[in-house]
Design brief:
With about 220 residues, the chain is mainly α. It is built from seven helices and three strands, in the order αααβββαααα. Strands 1-3-2 form a three-stranded mixed β-sheet, with helices on one face. About 30% of the residues are buried.
Length: about 220
Amino acid sequence: MFPKQPKVSTAGTIFGKIFGQPLHIEDMPESDTTPKMARLRQKVIITGNSFTTFVDLMRRTPFLSERVRNLGKLIWGLVGNRVIPACIGPTPTGTISFVGEGRGANFEKKTIEQGKYACFMIPDNWLDQLLKDPIMQFGGVVCTSSQARDYYNGRLSVDSLKLAYAFEAEALFAIEKVEAGWQPNEYQCQIMKEYPNGTLSLPPELWYESKSFVDPRPGETI
């Protein structure tokens, strides 16, 4: 049995000062069987499983491009090993967002270091959003995953959203080819128009190959 991955502490971080220390699902008392706690625990579990499923789809769906699948493989390792975990809480956009402290100004500095914190922030009504428009929320996972990729590579910058939208557009074009009758909404039409070839629409200086995630557990693969 592989060792349990350590919990991520927000002590001393900006995130910690605002939100405090995240409560991990295994810390929620199973002995508290009140209807309110039972509903909360179930909701958190389903939300986490839904997010994990989308990341799994991103890394394993054959009709998605190799770049999108590789993005999914990276995020699978980063989230699963709590390098960049997922948290439930309020977000500026009202939907799934990426939060990362610090940025690599010269694309040389490490951004994952002690005293810094990054996570996917998922609002508590995300399941309702997912049921209403699953493709929109899948695109949101792709978009935020690109930002997490930049953070992991020390390249989080003002241009990160351009790469994130290009990744999302690339995924949407692939979905459009296989999902009969699907019509992109106004937001999706805009980024698909701006990035008609997905990540290949980016200026050469904005594309880079990500460093790989190396699982610290012997024999484990992603």
